[in-house]
Amino acid sequence: MRYDHPDATKLIVEVQREYVVRYGDEDVTPVEPDDFAPPRGRFFVGYLDGAPVACGGWRGQDGPEPQYSRGDAEIKRMYVVESVRGNGYSRALLEVIEQSARDASRKRMILETGIAQPEAMSLYESSGYHPIPRFGPYSDDPCSRCYAKALPRSA
User: Fold this and answer.
1) What is the DSSP letter of 42?
2) Rounded distance, CA 39 to CA 140, Å?
3) How far apart are CA 72 and CA 80, in angstroms?
4) What CATH number is attached to the domain comprising 57?
5) Distance between CA 112 and CA 37 in Å, rounded?
6) Where in the sequence is the domain holding 130, given as residue range(s)?
7) Parallel, antiparallel, or unpaired: how do β-strands 51-61 and 108-114 relate?
8) What is d(CA 91, CA 127) in angstroms, rounded to the nearest whole number?
9) Crossing angle for the helix pair 118-126 and 89-103, to the nearest 10 degrees
């Protein structure tokens, strides 16, 4: 699905509202819809009873930031609506995102989340992600936590 599809846009507006509640401001990281267009990225929307309830995607990052390695895929805009949280949708979506990046020959998944999202940090840590130095626009943000996970090729 396109990052700028109406269902994706609806969920992205919701996640930005959640950032305002948790951090006092929206995430201002530069993001373009084409960042998530194959083969350089993918964006997904999950549905429940026909309604969009989850979203997230990845975009290729090969540089020039020194923290990026050739073959990195960065997760952006992972979100599950509050009314359906706690049902495993975020973990299932994360697995879909990782497999998609793996299928596109990406070697490592990277992401940024924040200290006001302990449930996100728990999800990533329990899914094999390890802390890395803050990168890109988050380099000097003490509220940011960055993670990475190797994406070995499937057998």
Assistant:
1) E
2) 31
3) 24
4) 3.40.630.30
5) 20
6) 6-150
7) unpaired
8) 8
9) 50
